[in-house]
Amino acid sequence: MGTPLFELRHLQVGTADEHAVPILRGIDLVVQPGEIHALMGPNGSGKSTLASAILGSPEYAVTGGAILFHGDDVTGWSTDVRAKAGMFLAFQYPQEIPGVSVLNFLRQALSARKGIDLSMLELRLAIMEWMARLDMDPAFADRYLNEGFSGGEKKRNEILQMAILEPDLAVLDETDSGLDIDALRTVAKGIHEVRAARPELGIVMITHYQRLLDEVRPDHVHVMIDGRIAASGGMELVAQLEREGYEGWR
């Protein structure tokens, strides 16, 4: 199948402090272009740590293994270099940035990501098209980033960023967290829209809940327990989790 889009080779991660508490204990994962991988697991299993480590968060230190992107070892790359190369993280709790509009944020991010300096009009037109697809109020383009946004609006704004910045790999950290069923379906529709525009996009989706996976239908499902991948499969694994919970893998 050629070089994977993204690969984790026995990744080991701990806290980046004097305690160096181990969290991830040897994660192996291969994502081919166009694939959606879902990671499920109970609280404390290391899912969000994995998302942060993939994008190079300074809160964590890689203590073993490697992170590869397009065949390049990016383990030592800084967060901004990874982002410019085409890696994207949608946060579980998106930050509010007072004083910076959604439009200005995306203009700066797009310039850093691709070296493209679109005029405000060109960017606004592109944003308006995607806002219509994502069922977002066009007025949000001129509001400060995430300030006063509801949970669903923040998550849709993350999908908007993913659409405009055109990454090759998107890590979605509990994008469904705190959403009602209507907002969840809108976010899932947005993911489908972005994939339709960019079929080679690889997605690693971290979630607690079956309902998002029912909407998105991932190609592969992995169960994380205590910093390891305990099982891998397809949607049948999600159904098994719904019936039996995580106890069988502990």
Your description of this structure?
The protein has a single domain (6-249), classed as Rossmann fold (3-Layer(aba) Sandwich). The protein is 36% helix and 28% strand. It has helices at residues 47-54, 79-85, 102-114, 120-133, 151-165, 181-197, 210-216, 235-244, and strands at residues 6-15, 22-31, 36-40, 60-69, 72-73, 87-90, 97-101, 144-145, 169-173, 202-206, 220-225, 228-233. The protein has a 6-stranded mixed beta sheet with strand order 6-9-10-3-11-12, sandwiched between helices. Strands 2-1-4-5 form a 4-stranded antiparallel beta sheet. Strands 7-8 form a two-stranded antiparallel ribbon. Helix 3 crosses helix 4, helix 5 (151-165) packs parallel to helix 6 and helix 6 (181-197) runs parallel beside helix 7 (210-216). It starts with 5 loop residues before the first strand and ends in a 6-residue tail after the last helix. The model has no long low-confidence stretch (mean pLDDT 90).
How do you describe this structure in short?
The protein is α/β, with parallel strands linked by helices. 36% of the residues lie in helices and 28% in strands.
